[in-house]
Amino acid sequence: MKALCWHGKGDIRCDTVPDPQIEDGRDVIIKVTSCAICGSDLHLMDGQMPTMKAGDVLGHEFMGEVVEVGSAHTKFRKGDRIVVPFNINCGECRQCKLGNWSVCQRSNRNAAMAAEQFGYTTAGLFGYSHLTGGYWGGQAEYVRVPMADVAPMRVPDGMDDESVLFLTDILPTGWQGAEHCEIRGGEIIAVWGAGPVGLFAIQSAKVMGAERIIAIDTVPERLALARTYGATDVIDFGSEDVFERIQEISRGEGADGVIDCVGMEASAGHGVASVLSTIQEKLTSTERPYALTEAIRAVRPCGIVSVPGVYGGPIPVNMGSIVQKGLTLKSGQTHVKRYLEPLTKLIQEGKFDTASLITHRSTNLADGPDLYKTFRDKKDGCVKVVFHPN
Questions:
Q1: What is the pTM of this model?
Q2: SS3 assignment, position 278
Q3: What are phi and psi of 170, to 5 degrees?
Q4: pLDDT at position 267, please?
Q5: Residue 268 pLDDT greater than 80, yes or no
Q6: Helix %, strand %, coil % for the chain, to 5?
Q7: How many other CB atoms are there within 10 angstroms of residue 18's CB atom?
Q8: Closest listed residue to residue 242, CA positions, set 203, 290, 184
């Protein structure tokens, strides 16, 4: 089969690789009908995540048609269309029973490696390094889905791929990021990054009842989309001081909640911060927590900082501000399974616009290497890339 594979920093190729095989009775094999490039995939492309190996198949946002089932599998049948969450769940460990799906204790085949890095294992993830199990991802024509009797969901009748594809990751991630801000109605919420996750965080905050939603980015097309999705204010961090604007909008109080949808490769805005960030980027490959630093600064005392953006290792954080301001910091990989059914219902009710952020489509995985670069460089108005390989 054809698949998009990692071969080193900046080196993504469309390779011919062996077809997946059933390895356990709970497995299914799916023919991929839709898959997408995620912002998190760019961290892999840029060499920010350890334990990648040449030839690893990428992709954790995918869905498709079941074409083969394991001997012990009873949930799905051949021909079923299913959405596959990016994290893999056993359904049997203590964390799964608590509904903490992203920290499943049994699905990561390299749990000891993850525990050494993070102090505790994560769930197994599709297409996201050997630190999370070394599972091949879904930017491919076919995928083996392990433990498929737990997390994946059958697509309801009448819903097309582009209505539900983003339930695999970025819609629940944006929702969880907003949910962590404990929005009850009337709040000011600031969202760093108007990429796909940020745009869904904005839509989520609107659904939850936030009064003012501030989108922070520097790409005109993304800021324009943010307004259509519910942002009441936009800040171009390339030309404006984010802290001063938030102070102005909030009448000196600060935002009630802030959501860092950028993560480890944040770029700084104008002024001295931009110069320092550029120097750090040129001299080191360490993570750049500019967005998180600004979020901590801009949130009000006793406010909430929500971090759905990906970080892979230690970063400098102003604990003095967190402690003295009495802040709450909430983060974590998304517990996707927790949100599948309620978010599907909201999509059916028209509360979410899932398809309009797709700017680039392809039926040929061979276009993948170039589209990775287009997405990374934000060229051609690129916001989201989706493939329909079958």
A1: 0.93
A2: helix
A3: -70, -30
A4: 55
A5: no
A6: 35, 25, 45
A7: 8
A8: 290
Residue appearing with tokens 């604990």: 319
SS3 305: strand
**Which runs of consecutive H residues, i.e. helices, occur in the chain?**
39-45, 94-97, 111-118, 161-164, 170-179, 196-208, 220-229, 242-249, 272-283, 290-298, 319-324, 336-348, 368-377
Q: How many other C-beta atoms can be found within 10 angstroms of the C-beta atom of residue 341?
A: 11
Q: Token pair for residue 143?
A: 């995928």
- Rounded to 5 degrees, what are φ and ψ at 27? -70, 155
AA identity, residue 137: G
DSSP symbol at 337: H
Per this entry, what is the length of the chain? 390
Q: Helix H segments across 168-289?
A: 170-179, 196-208, 220-229, 242-249, 272-283
Q: How far is CA 368 from CA 15, 113, 202, 226, 262, in A?
A: 11, 30, 28, 26, 22
- pLDDT tens digits for range 325-355: 999 999 999 999 999 999 999 999 999 999 9
In whole angstroms, give the CA distance from residue 187 to residue 76.
Answer: 42
